[in-house]
Design a protein that fits this description.
Blueprint (H helix, E strand, L loop, with lengths): L1 H8 L4 E5 L5 H8 L3 E6 L2 H10 L4 E4 L12 E7 L10 H11 E12 L9 E3 L6 E3 L2 H10 L3 E8 L11 E7 L5
Parallel strand pairs: 1-2, 1-4, 2-3, 4-5
Antiparallel strand pairs: 5-9, 6-7, 8-9
Amino acid sequence: MTSAFAALVAGGGTVADVGCGPGHVTAHLHSLGVRAFGVDLSPEMVALARATHPDLRFEVGRMESLEVADAALAGVLANHSIIHTPPELLPEAFAEFRRVLAPGGHLLLGFPACDGREGPAQAYDHVTYRAYRHSAGRVAGLLLDLRLDEVARLVVAPGEDARRGFPQVYLIARSPLME
């Protein structure tokens, strides 16, 4: 889905990799011709990303309050970065993504999904901090409430991702072309 997302946003402007961690996805986007920068809450992760990918831009920041002008980005990618966001705070993060997306801009979310197709978020222990698996339908509904229309969805079965062991959802949404 990252390649599909890159094809949608390449040449259209700048993309924020929100929750970029060590910067590997930001670097991958760059290798696909996307002008991308990374944002992460952890100063340690940003330092690692800068050291590993010195030619790319990385900054410390929060997904709920990005230091980006309104409608300035061609895309936002949040690959497994909403896992530490409690369910009640997802609308705030998604509203921020919507705010920074230019008309027609794209959002790619990747996240572990609940075992059932729908239902409340499920908390689980993660290596660093409590994490959540979210319902794909609930996430898509929250995006739709913000006029971010789903364009594509990929659900990876739990048996196909031995490292994580949960279903994984990758969802691409688009902001309206005109307000």
